[in-house]
Design a protein that fits this description.
The complex is a heterodimer of chains A (108) and B (119).
Chain A: E1 9-12, E2 18-23, E3 33-37, E4 44-47, E5 61-66, E6 69-74, E7 83-91, E8 96-99, E9 103-107
Parallel strand pairs in A: 1-9
Antiparallel strand pairs in A: 2-6, 3-4, 3-7, 5-6, 7-8, 7-9
Chain B: E1 3-7, E2 11-12, E3 18-25, E4 34-41, E5 48-54, E6 59-61, E7 69-74, E8 79-84, E9 93-101, E10 106-109, E11 113-117
Parallel strand pairs in B: 2-11
Antiparallel strand pairs in B: 1-3, 3-8, 4-5, 4-9, 5-6, 7-8, 9-10, 9-11
The chains are: A mainly beta (108), B mainly beta (119).
């Protein structure tokens, strides 16, 4: 089955930029979705179709996808961005969704 | 605005069957080309998709859980349900229900419900 690989943790100072990667075989050919999950809460969609933001998600959140890696970029990081972030794609060979292992974003 | 709410026992004994229900409000479970999923998350770990059901009753399951899982839908009650048999401590997790669409994302999600498997 299809495997998505994320770094377990990323640390960033407030006001700086955070990059969270999601690796997968030829992931650039798939649509990638990103979720933010704060402690004790359900995941919330922050990026869909690789680059699009749902209404209410700040422009500081952006996405890209090419080759074997997709990236979630958070600009001008704020304390409130501290959370776990998960990528998700559809594994068309098995006809079901797959999640990455998650990345814990720490704001220093 | 569609909202989902999980309900069910928070404690299940080993070898027994876990049963959860997700109630959909703010919209019909039969509208649109959506499906309805269960996703779980053990404490401190990542998300695992369990399976999905369409309002037609068609289902699809994670191969790793398929032998123990049944997901069903009751359109008259605007609910869908999860049954997982022969549970062990490894099934202890927060269980979420969520709406999805084929090849797309999950939104919205329920708030999640913790199910512990213990004697």
């Amino acid at each position: 089955s299809y495997v998505l690989t994320q770094p377990p943790s990323v640390s960033v100072a407030p006001g700086k930029t955070a990059w969270i990667t999601c690796g997968g075989n030829n992931i650039g050919s798939k649509n990638v979705y990103w979720y933010q999950q704060k402690p004790g809460q359900a995941p919330v969609l922050v990026i869909y179709y690789d680059t699009d933001r749902p209404s209410g998600i700040p422009e500081r959140f952006s996405g890209s996808n090419s080759g074997n890696a997709a990236t979630l970029t958070i600009s001008r990081v704020e304390d409130g961005d501290e959370a776990d972030y998960y990528c998700q794609v559809w594994d068309t060979s098995s006809d079901h969704p797959v999640f990455g292992g998650g990345t814990q974003l720490t704001v220093l | 605005q569609v909202q989902l709410q999980e309900s069910g026992p928070g404690l299940v004994k080993p070898s027994q069957t876990l049963s959860l229900t997700c109630t959909v409000s703010g919209g019909s479970i039969s509208s649109g080309s959506y499906y309805w999923s269960w996703i779980r998350q053990p404490a401190g770990k990542g998300l695992e998709w369990i399976g999905r059901v369409y309002s037609s009753g068609d289902t699809n399951y994670n191969p790793s859980l398929k032998s123990r899982v049944t997901i069903s839908v009751d359109t008259s009650k605007n609910q869908f349900s999860l049954r997982m048999s022969s549970v062990t401590a490894a099934d202890t997790a927060v269980y979420y229900c969520a709406r999805g669409r084929f090849l797309e994302w999950f939104d919205p999600w329920g708030q999640g419900t913790l199910v512990s498997v213990s004697s």
